[in-house]
User: Fold this.
Amino acid sequence: MAEVSDRPAEGRFDGREHRFPVRVYFEDTDLSGAVYHANYLRYMERARSDMLRLGGIDQRATFEAGEGSYAIASVTIRYAAPARLDDALLVVSRIVQVRAAGVAIHQRVMRDGLVLAEADVVAALVAPNGRPRRQPRAWIDIYERLVWQGEA
Assistant:
């Protein structure tokens, strides 16, 4: 049996906000030494997946049962400053709106409190045929408990 310290790093909830640490590796950077723009989306995807798992949403079981999976319906991203090799980053995620078939999430990638990139993401649950479908009631209940209320 693996030791707890052998498990992948996980984020955590701080109130309704999910916090996920990320380290910048050489493979994340471009020729200029800055994190390649698409990798911010990867960091955010990992943070969202971790947030859902920690919140009690089992995406894998739903997919394996043939009930569907999440697809990104839209992403709006803004880059403010570059991250560089070996930076310790934090991806902060907040549920901002729950819909019948999806959820809107605001995410920020930060270094020492400085926002490097932020995005508004809408993830929609889709059936195996690709059509949107209602989320399970239990998932909606989880999201509604996590909706950001503007806490300080």
User: Anything to note?
Assistant: The helical segments are 37-55, 59-64, 137-146. The mean pLDDT is 93. The longest helix spans residues 37-55.
